[in-house]
Design brief:
This protein has helices at residues 2-11, 16-41, 57-73, 78-104, 124-150, 154-186, 194-202, 205-211, and strands at 106-107, 117-118, 122-123, 216-217. The chain is mainly α and 220 residues long. The radius of gyration is 19 Å and the shape is globular. The N and C termini lie far apart (57 Å).
């Protein structure tokens, strides 16, 4: 029985291909979820989290978190798992908001006044949503994803992973640099060097506002 358990855990162990594909897939699905939410709520269009691509990386990172937790919860009671996954999701979302504020002086979501919120960074309803998503991922989604990915030849997996990884590293770097430079512009800091001049010209405030309509500067 122990050997069988180790075999199952190994079968679904994260590797580079699974990390890259799962992150990209769930970032895209997260963008679709956010888009539907906007359409239903008639809010501002566009909920992407990076400069390029219909991607909401918070969902991709959340999926990786649940994949890491898979060995701990795969055989646990559903109610027990749901409660702990709610807590894990709430802490994860809180930390994402906290880190964004500390690094860039901005927030992309704020839930003060929605009831049972935690510093406005998350709330009870969202924690329940994270718990439901986490339970689905661990009981159904992640094993199904692994079995589907394993049907693709390993060479193709790796080639696509390398291309996606290069794209994401560049995307993350440019997105972070553009937002960082925007924070400097708010403090009236002039550009220092050609790269910052490039950022000012290519990613002015108007473009960033259009790309990230929900991102707001935090006033000290």
């Amino acid at each position: 029985m122990k050997a069988a358990g180790r075999e199952i855990r190994g079968q679904y162990r994260l590797n580079l291909n699974r990390i890259v594909w799962l992150f990209m897939l769930c970032s895209f699905l997260g963008y679709l979820i956010e888009t539907v939410d906007v359409l239903v709520g008639k809010g501002a269009p566009g909920r992407q989290g990076l400069l390029y691509g219909p991607l909401a990386p918070v969902y991709g990172l959340g999926a990786l978190l649940f994949a890491l937790l898979y060995p701990l919860f795969r055989n646990r009671n559903e109610l027990f798992s749901f409660v702990l996954l709610c807590a894990a999701g709430a802490v994860f979302e809180y930390l994402c908001s906290f880190m964004q504020e500390k690094l860039f002086g901005t927030v992309s979501w704020e839930y003060t006044g929605f009831g049972f919120d935690w510093d406005g960074r998350t709330n009870l309803v969202l924690a329940l949503c994270w718990g439901a998503l986490g339970l689905f991922m661990i009981k159904i989604g992640y094993p199904l994803f692994c079995r589907g990915l394993d049907k693709i030849p390993r060479g193709i997996q790796t080639a696509v992973s390398i291309m996606l990884l290069i794209f994401m590293i560049g995307n993350l770097f440019l997105s972070g640099a553009a937002i960082w430079r925007q924070a400097e512009r708010r403090e009236h800091v002039p550009p220092n060097g050609r790269f910052e001049v490039f950022l000012d010209k290519t990613y002015p405030d108007e473009r960033l506002k259009k790309t990230f309509p929900n991102m707001k500067a935090v006033k000290e």
